[in-house]
Design brief:
- The structure holds 2 protein chains of 2 kinds.
- Chain A is α+β, with helices and mostly antiparallel strands.
- Chain A contains 6 helices and 8 strands.
- Chain A has an 8-stranded antiparallel β-barrel with strand order 1-2-3-6-5-4-7-8.
- In chain A, a hairpin with a 5-residue loop joins strand 5 and strand 6.
- In chain A, helix 2 packs across helix 3.
- Chain B is built from 11 helices and no strands.
- Classes of the chains: A alpha+beta, B mainly alpha.
- Chains A and B meet through helix 1, helix 3, helix 4 and helix 6 of A and helix 3, helix 4, helix 5, helix 7 and helix 8 of B.
Chain lengths: 281, 209
């Protein structure tokens, strides 16, 4: 992962849009979590707008706006009746949401019972400690529910992409090595959405275990000759759902597979870790 | 979620009611599925995005497609905008510029050619606008901005033009100019610094009227 000095070095090129795709992905990953660097990027935004305004001003024809609104209408209609593969994926996340809501109710009921028990036998300090624990648990449950909602939102966006573009294909991402899931957990899986028109590959995975600090899920594209190209880091939320979008600089036909590996966050040019997921392109 | 989103027959009065809103407010409404807010934001910035796309891609059809894609992304991603990361205009132009660069790089891969942007062409083309007042204002504004670019040392200017308007990576610029990569990086940094000084807050305030 890039550090702040690297961001400082690359900021001018980032502002002008002259970084490569993988550099841009690494740059954005750092800026998402680093407030001082985010401020520098914000300050550079005005220059970007000024450069855009230097060119002769023209007006797009009215049909561009009409097509945009028609495209939005089409997607909105389709979103109400998604196709089966996406429904399966969204449905799975939906079940997690239901489970989370049930869990929170059960936790609340348990807490009330425990509080009554403690009320008669413990000191005020004990009760205060317990209240802290309860608040932490409830915060944790609320965070999980929020993550699931965001996951659902991302899947809807993914579906909009699929619905809006006839050049899009969807492929399965499955566990690369036999894994023994933890009790109550399923094996990692996901989908790859490939847009030939935009040369983008979107990865949406689920059931990914949380990693220790300084480790991350890395997305690799594998060329037919075996060359590995690291493209992005998968952002994984508390529910185990991961998402990444990669723009490919070379023709899609040059690539045969995509891998998601577990490597140190600041991994070098080659993977040294385990491969968690793979999908054929 | 956009589930309860919008009525496709949004009245013009709803659109008019949003014309005076700030960009941030419009984006907040768009994130909630407000189509008329998107129309107002489109009317505000579509010309700028389309002009940049037309200048860089040199093709009306491609410029129209990029403009449409940019605002479609705004519609989909409005909820991800973070005011701490900068103004809406910067966010929007960043989406548009990246989309144009993707298109340029795709063309270069397919045609094995490098489009060399001609910033001088700026002076040979005319601004277009249906409104004569808007036409005059934009022309004057563009002229001031172009002067800021023209005032740069030619070596610095060429780096900005090749990177921003040509979509070339730093390595490609180094190869094209036959200069070491480090030199290109230094020139890029100096060029942006000089541009920011030429277009400081006072100049920008004047330009924004």
């Amino acid at each position: 992962m890039m550090d702040c000095s690297k961001i400082h070095e690359l900021l001018p090129a980032y502002t002008l849009g002259s970084l490569t795709t993988s550099e841009t992905a690494d740059f954005n990953t750092h800026v998402e979590v680093c407030s001082p660097c985010a401020v520098k990027v914000r300050d550079a935004g005005d220059t970007l707008v000024d450069l855009a305004r230097m060119v002769p001003q023209k007006r797009p024809s009215e049909r561009v706006k009409d097509r945009l609104l028609a495209r939005i209408d089409k997607v909105d209609q389709l979103v109400t009746r998604p196709s089966r593969p996406v429904m399966d994926f969204v449905g799975s996340l939906g079940r997690q949401l239901t489970f989370s809501t049930g869990t929170s109710l059960a936790v609340a009921f348990l807490i009330v019972a425990v509080v009554i028990g403690y009320w008669s036998s413990r000191s005020l300090q004990d009760l205060q400690d317990l209240r802290g624990d309860i608040e932490q648990r409830m915060e944790s449950v609320a965070q999980q529910e929020e993550d699931v909602r965001e996951g659902l939102e991302q899947q809807h966006k993914l579906f909009e992409t699929i619905a809006a573009d006839p050049d899009v294909t969807v492929k399965r991402l499955s566990a690369n090595i036999p894994t023994v899931p933890l009790p109550g957990h399923e094996s990692p899986s996901g989908v790859i959405v490939i847009s030939a028109r935009d040369s983008t590959v979107t990865i949406a995975a689920m059931h990914l275990p949380q990693l220790p600090q300084n480790w991350a899920y890395h997305v690799w594209l594998i060329k037919h000759g075996g060359q590995e190209i690291r493209t992005a880091t998968l952002t994984v939320d508390s529910t185990g759902a991961g998402h990444a979008e990669v723009t490919i600089d070379a023709p899609l036909e040059e690539f045969r597979a995509i891998f998601v590996t577990i490597d140190p966050a600041n991994a070098g040019p080659g993977s040294v870790g385990n491969s968690a997921l793979r999908g054929d392109l | 979620m956009r589930g309860n989103a919008k009525d496709s027959s949004v009245s013009s009065s709803e659109t008019e009611a949003r014309i005076t809103l700030e960009d941030v407010e419009l984006l907040r409404l768009i994130a909630n599925g407000d189509r008329s807010a998107l129309e107002v934001l489109y009317d505000r910035y579509a010309g700028g995005i389309y002009s940049l796309a037309h200048h860089m891609l040199q093709e009306q059809g491609a410029a129209e497609e990029v403009t449409q894609d940019t605002f479609f992304k705004v519609w989909r991603r409005a909820s991800t905008y973070n005011v701490k990361r900068g103004k809406v205009s910067g966010w929007l132009f960043s989406i548009g510029h990246h989309r144009i660069i993707d298109e340029l790089r795709k063309r270069r891969r397919q045609k094995s050619m490098i489009y060399v942007p001609d910033v001088e062409a700026v002076h040979r083309q005319e601004d277009e606008s249906a409104d004569p007042n808007e036409f005059a204002e934009k022309r004057m504004q563009g002229s001031r901005l172009r002067k800021a670019l023209e005032s740069l040392n030619p070596e610095l200017k060429s780096v900005v033009v090749l990177a921003y308007y040509g979509g070339l990576t730093q390595s490609e610029i180094a190869k094209k100019l036959n200069q070491p990569l480090g030199t290109v990086k230094t020139r890029t940094r100096l060029a942006l610094k000089a541009l920011r000084e030429n277009l400081g807050p006072q100049a920008r305030k004047w330009l924004d009227g």
